[in-house]
Amino acid sequence: MPAGEGGSAVPWWGVASALLANVLYSTGFVLEKRALAGLPALSIRRPGRVVGHLLSSPLWLAGSLALAAGFAAQLAVYRTLPLAAAQGLFVSGLVLLLLLSSVVLGERTSGRERQGIVAILFALALVIASLRGEDAQAVARTAPPGTLLLIAVPSLAAGLLLYRSAERRARRRHRLPTAGVPYGVAVGLLYGVSSLAIKGVAGLLTARDIPATVDRLLRSPYPYLLLVTGAAGLVLSQTALQRCRASLIVPVCTTVTCVFTVVCGTVAFGEPLPADPLRRALRLGGTAVAVAVLLALPRHDPPAPVSATGTPELRHEAR
Fold it and tell me: In 3-state terms, what secondary structure has residue 44?
């Protein structure tokens, strides 16, 4: 059924594309994490070496292809659903990510993380319940470049500074092992800006006049923001993913990206929330649950168990 027709029917094409993107993204992250376990220690101080190590791993390349396919599905979502609804659906992918990281990587999830799974499923139900067919008519195509850059530049700077601060704290002695929350927040800010750029690209894409489409894209800030966030995100996210549990850093990153995109994207693109009070409450409630999940996640991994010889046992993140 075409977008905007069918009265109050739920835009299932957008919902299906979002769920497909979730599967592809979760699979990609888990494959990359599995590959990173067999690579030398990565350092953001040597980005060229990081890229070289990554490209030498067939398993990591397979994960990257899955993420690229997820990017294509995300473009379809942003052409069908408003930002707030799309991000609420994307957060549901955390459930699959936690399950895959447990089965494939052997990572153990805490009680609070398992409770987060239930909360995320509840958030997914709230967002889907808020959707109607007329939502497609409220999807914005572009944002004023000045407004977009005013949001993007400080956000990128904040993400890089936070990551640098997390790196400094991680080098200190006698600290509890970090669970990756600071890294996840930092990378989430970068990917939040990237999500706004993807939204802009999706709005400009059309098959009617390809040369004109390319010209509009090159005159917009969207491809350049994607280039910056893609390059920085590649080095930062893979370095953080190698050091921390995928079952925590990816949910934190995803939640921050979701909240950032909903709040800043709604301002930049000017997409209105549903006029109906019940639907508006359902959509905002789903976003609020996502924020609650982020705040409930533990900031540190528990200390490694001590063996009979009195030395800490090694943690196994991948089988």
Answer: coil
Q: How far apart are CA 92 and CA 23, in angstroms?
A: 10
pTM beyond cutoff 0.90: no
Closest by Cα among 27, 29, 23 to 249: 29
Residue with tokens 């050091």: 243
- Residue 10 exposed, middle or buried by CB count within 10 Å (0-12, 13-18, 19+): middle
Tokens of 266: 């709604």
CA–CA distance, 188 with 11 (Å, rounded to integer):
27
> What residues contact residue 157 under an 8 Å CB cut-off, 6+ apart?
none
As a whole number of angstroms, the distance between CA 50 and CA 61 comes to: 13
Beta carbons within 10 angstroms of residue 154's beta carbon: 12
Beta strands in the chain (DSSP E): none
Which residue is it, tokens 């800030």? 221
Residue 190: what pLDDT? Answer: 94
What residues are paired with 300 via a beta bridge?
178
Of 152, 188, 203, nearest to 291 (Cα)?
188
Single out the residue of 128, 105, 111 nearest to residue 19, CA to CA.
128
Q: How many CB atoms lie within 10 A of CB 315?
A: 13
Phi/psi of residue 312, nearest 5 degrees: -65, 140
- CA-based angle 117:123:124, to the nearest 5? 90
Number of H helices, E strands in the chain: 12, 0
Burial (CB count within 10 angstroms: exposed 0-12, middle 13-18, buried 19+), residue 129: middle
Residue 109 is given by DSSP the state P
Mean pLDDT by 10 residues, the chain (319 residues): 47 85 90 90 87 92 93 87 79 78 77 72 75 65 87 94 84 58 89 91 82 89 92 89 80 81 84 81 79 64 49 42
